[in-house]
Design goal:
Largest sheet: 5 strands, parallel
Strand order of the largest sheet: 3-2-1-7-19
Radius of gyration: 23 Å
Bound molecules: flavin-adenine dinucleotide
Helix content: 10-25%
Structural class: alpha/beta
Shape: globular
Number of helices: 11
């Protein structure tokens, strides 16, 4: 067994968006001690959003995915170990054990382990033409099979599935998307937005089947027929599964840290062990703005939690209270969302859905709590301010394009 004992400092497990951002945030906030970044993928930290967008379509290069250059980690004296995983946390020694047997001690340990694609648990789900979209490797495998004329079946009508459908159409494939709920994007948006997206995809050639799931995959060594739960049989050349992700919480679990749909942390990214933190997709965290805990899967969340964690480690703690936001690109439709819409009591559409340029505003008791802007970046920016400021507005003001959102956003904040 290899025993190594570099100086303890900050050890980050997971070299993804959150882990990569944390290295920069620590140095920016003045941390001068040793920082070790350990990731099991053979790449420096990279952005995942282009995996189902420009990288899948071939418009983005591999290098353009990287958060920053390999040299910049060296310049900031970040000890990078890519292509090697952490097997376990040894809390009694304040150290992590890597799969090569070596031991890396820590003063502060940050778990930034993200998640993995949820897989279909059916015979045939591991055949070479059944794909998932979570990593660079996934896309390198999928891209080669996305050839014009091929029959692509997408399982799951969430953002990843819909983005993959739009790339499939762009590349000339025959695309069918199935969603087990009665509408696409059901978990994240209002029925009006789901209807808009279904219409937009159908208009561009996607066949969408809702209210039905996958019952069986037939064919060997490749799947060639997908049997749906309603009995229909669909021929397919390749299948893309986008049914969500599972947070990577095993390290925390076996170290007896609290896990409940993610690693449980407070608003300062701290677990119950004062030396251990969790950030990004793997964390179930407290948000002081929303006054609740949640687990988010988004780049802004990963970046913000990295900043909060760095501040705590640098002795300048500030709680996490950012308003969540997210985006999705499908065809020429740029969707930007802010806030959480659950519990809304009024939905207002501003603009023209038929012209594919509009915003949906979600109100609760006369306060803007969330917005979805389609091809309206200015609305998004102003809505972000209004949601953050809890601006009181009326449905009539929001609906009326003659009333500028800028003037509504400029209203004094309620006390
Ligand atoms: C296809 C796709 C499209 C997306 N599109 C958008 C978008 O449009 N907008 C948006 O805001 N967000 C989007 N997201 C979500 C966003 O990419 C994630 O929220 C973000 O990557 C989370 O960062 P993270 O660092 O927490 O996790 P990750 O980026 O998943 O990084 C975690 C890393 O830790 C590694 N790891 C896990 N366990 C270990 C271990 N034991 N030892 C060592 N390393 C380990 C993993 O392999 C991985 O490399 C998208 C995600 C996907 C998959």
């Amino acid at each position: 067994m290899v025993e190594t004992t570099p100086a303890a400092g900050v050890v980050i497990v997971g070299a993804g968006q959150a882990g990569g951002d944390l290295t920069g945030a620590l140095r920016v906030q003045g941390y001068t001690g040793p920082v070790t970044l350990i990731g099991d993928e053979p790449y420096p930290p990279y952005r995942r959003p282009p995996l189902s967008k420009a990288f899948l379509s071939g418009e983005a290069t591999l290098e353009s995915l990287y958060l920053r250059s390999a040299e910049s980690y060296a310049r900031q004296q970040i000890d990078c170990r890519f292509g090697i995983g952490v097997e376990r946390i040894e809390r009694n020694r304040n150290a992590v054990r890597l799969y090569d047997g070596s031991l890396v001690p820590y003063q502060h340990l940050v778990l930034a382990t993200g998640g993995r694609a949820r897989r279909l648990s059916l015979p045939g789900a591991n055949h070479a033409n059944v794909h998932y979209i979570r990593s660079i490797e996934d896309i390198l495998k999928l891209k080669g099979q996305m050839l014009p004329g091929k029959r692509l079946l997408i399982v799951g009508g969430g953002y990843v599935g819909l983005e993959a459908a739009s790339i499939g159409i762009k590349k000339g494939l025959d695309v069918t998307l199935i969603e087990s709920l009665d509408r696409v994007l059901a978990r994240v948006t209002a029925p009006e937005l789901s209807a808009f997206y279904e219409k937009a995809h159908r208009a561009r050639g996607v066949k969408i089947l809702t209210g039905t799931g996958v019952h069986a995959l037939e064919g060997d060594p490749l799947v060639d027929v997908v049997v749906l739960s309603d009995g229909r049989r669909l021929a397919a050349d390749l299948i893309v599964v986008g049914i969500g992700m599972i947070p990577n919480t095993e390290l925390a679990d076996t170290a007896q840290l609290k896990v409940l749909n993610g690693i449980v942390v407070d608003a300062f990214t701290r677990t119950e062990d004062p030396a251990i933190y969790a950030i990004g997709d793997c964390s179930n965290h407290e948000n002081v703005f929303l006054a609740r805990r949640l687990r988010l899967e988004s780049v802004p969340n990963a970046a913000e939690q990295a900043r909060v964690c760095a501040a705590v480690i640098c002795g300048k703690p500030q709680p996490y209270g950012a308003v969540p936001w997210f985006w999705s690109d499908q065809y020429d439709l740029k969707l930007q969302m802010v806030g959480l819409s659950e519990g809304y009591d009024e939905l207002v559409i501003r603009g023209d859905m038929d012209k594919e340029s509009f915003s949906a505003f979600y109100l609760r008791k006369g306060i803007l709590i969330s917005a979805d802007a389609v091809n309206r970046p200015q609305d998004f920016m102003l809505a972000k301010r209004m949601v953050t400021d809890r601006t009181p507005v009326t449905a009539a003001q929001l609906r009326d394009e003659g009333t500028s959102l800028k003037s509504l956003a400029a209203q004094p904040k309620p006390a």
